[in-house]
Design goal:
2 domains; single chain; mainly alpha
Length: 402
């Protein structure tokens, strides 16, 4: 089996789970007796937990040089915790097991992204055409489980989560093995120092903040988009089509992304995403006619897709391969954890007070993204931010250990 097929399969199984979890996990929690406050606590704590956990597992994978082994372990842990969720009762135990699940499963993604971007750089693999299978399975899962819920109780959601994670174990297991590298204590210390160097590098730090802010412009859409459309009088079927339009646009971009990534590069992809965000959220905040809404939803391919492509391409080019998974995890933790969590919390009162006009704040964040990218463009030449190997320093460290 080729690496392309293995990666596409792994992306597919990962987003099969996500397509069940994101729309329906709160529904399952409610069916288990949790109230709105308890559900929001589970969701919020899960977002912030990955800030610490994902970089830890990524650093472990970089340190031992075996991303596949770490992925398989995380996949098994995800499956076990989801299965345990079916058995536990009460808010405290459900919260504990859900936090374990949300610690281990999101930690898989940076490892997969690292392997995919490495294959793009080393083998010329079309990253977008591999990644799009995740978007496809997300649509299949969300629509499929929605259909199942028409005929089954919410308990079916838990079994779907377990089934998706069982497939994810198989997908992780099918990935090729990587040879581990033996590291002396000096080299381990040097790697830790290098992680700090790249994390504190002004260009890396600002880019991660800026790219995460680009993803956070979706906060109103993710948290209140359906509610806002319901208030505007649209039915569930129309709202479902609006969401599907966004994901389909994302799939189209991923399919044609190969030459686009080469031609535009990381920074200009983010610029395109920011400009699209300013337009999309400004118009959406005006509560336009349905036909215009569908056009704005098609911009999701840029506001999300181009931002994602730009971010993973930047990390792949700016971080040396020995730190690639750690660097990807730092971005993922900031984008899907810190920044999205903070903006979502902050935007709640704004939406309560102003309704759909809260989208104007998201457009303003898009302007902030452009400002950050201007600084990055002036300071980054498109290459590594720290050297691939610093032999002189390593030799000196080895001498100091003698």
């Amino acid at each position: 089996m080729s690496l392309v097929i293995r990666l596409a399969t792994l992306y597919g199984t990962m987003f099969l789970f996500t397509g069940v979890y994101l729309p329906f996990f709160p529904v399952w929690l409610k069916s288990r007796g949790l109230d709105a406050t308890e559900i929001s606590l589970v969701v919020a704590l899960s977002l912030f937990l990955r800030i610490v956990v994902s970089p830890f597992f990524a650093a472990l994978a970089d340190r031992i040089g075996d991303r596949r082994g770490v992925m398989v372990g995380l996949a098994w842990a995800s499956l076990a915790s989801a299965a345990l969720l079916l058995a536990v009762q009460g808010f405290g135990l459900i919260l504990l097991v859900a936090l374990v699940l949300n610690a281990v499963f999101p930690s898989i993604s940076p490892l997969v992204e690292t392997m995919a971007m490495r294959a793009r750089i080393d083998r010329g693999m079309n990253y977008g055409r591999v990644r799009l299978w995740g978007s496809i399975t997300f649509i299949l899962a969300s629509t499929g489980v929605g259909w199942l819920l028409e005929w089954n109780p919410p308990a079916i959601i838990g079994f779907c989560l377990v089934a998706a994670l069982a497939l994810n174990v198989a997908g992780a297991w099918a990935m090729p093995r990587e040879a581990g590298r033996v590291r002396t204590p000096a080299r381990r210390h040097s790697q830790f120092a290098d992680v700090l160097r790249i994390a504190r590098h002004p260009v890396f730090f600002l880019f991660v903040i800026t790219a995460s802010l680009a993803q956070a412009t979706h906060a109103v859409y993710y948290a209140f988009g359906s509610l806002a459309w319901q208030k505007q009088g649209y039915g569930d079927s129309v709202i479902g089509l609006l969401w599907a339009t966004g994901v389909l646009a994302e799939i189209v971009l991923f399919y044609i992304s190969g030459p686009i990534m080469v031609r535009l590069g990381a920074v200009r992809l983010l610029v395109l995403a920011a400009l699209a965000a300013i337009l999309r959220w400004t118009v959406t905040g005006l509560s336009p006619p349905l036909a215009v809404l569908f056009i704005m939803q098609a911009l999701h391919g840029l506001t999300f897709g181009a931002a994602h492509l730009g971010a993973v391409q930047f990390v792949a080019q700016a971080a040396p391969p020995r730190l690639a998974a750690t660097a990807q995890s730092l971005y993922a933790a900031m984008a899907s954890g810190v920044m999205m969590g903070l903006v979502t919390i902050a935007i709640g009162p704004v939406y309560k007070a102003f309704g759909a006009h809260a989208y104007f704040v998201m457009a303003g964040l898009g302007v902030g993204v452009l400002a950050g990218l201007l600084f990055v463009a002036m300071r980054w030449d498109g290459g590594l931010l720290i050297p691939e190997e610093d032999n002189g320093d390593r030799e000196q460290e080895d001498k100091n250990d003698d």
